[in-house]
Amino acid sequence: MNKKTLTKLEYHKIIDILIEQATSFGGKERCKRLKPMTSLPDINTAQEQTAAAFTRIIRKGRPSFGSCNPVGESLKRLEVGAALGSGELLRICKLLENAGQIKAYGRHETVDDAEDCLDIFFQQIEPLTLISTEIRRCIIDEDEISDDASSTLKQIRRSMNQINDKVHSTLSSLVNGSLRTYLQDSIITMRGDRYCIPVKAEYRSQVSGLIHDQSATGSTLFIEPMSVVKLNNDLKELYGKEQEEIQIILARLSADVAEYTESIRTDYKIMTELDFIFARGNLAILMNASKPVFNTKGKIHIREGRHPLLDKKKVVPITVTLGDAFDLLIVTGPNTGGKTVSLKTVGLFTLMGQAGLHIPALDRSELALFENVYADIGDEQSIEQSLSTFSSHMTNIVSFLKHVDEHSLVLFDELNAGTDPTEGAALAIAILSYLHQRGIRTMATTHYSELKVFALSTPGVENACCEFDVETLSPTYRLLIGIPGKSNAFAIAGKLGLPDYIIDDARTHLTEQDESFEDLLTDLETSKRTIRKEQEEIEHYKRELERLEEETRQKRDKLEEQRDRIIREANEKAHEILADAKETADETMRNFHKFGKANISVAEMEKERERLRKKMNATQNSMKTDAKKPKKTYKASDFKLGESVKVLSMNLTGSVTSLPDSKGMSPCRWESCAPQSTFPIWRSSTKRRHIHLPEELVRPAKVKLKWANPLRSVRRLTFLEKRSMRRLPNWISIWMMHRLHISVP
Question: What pTM was computed for the model?
Answer without folding.
Answer: 0.66
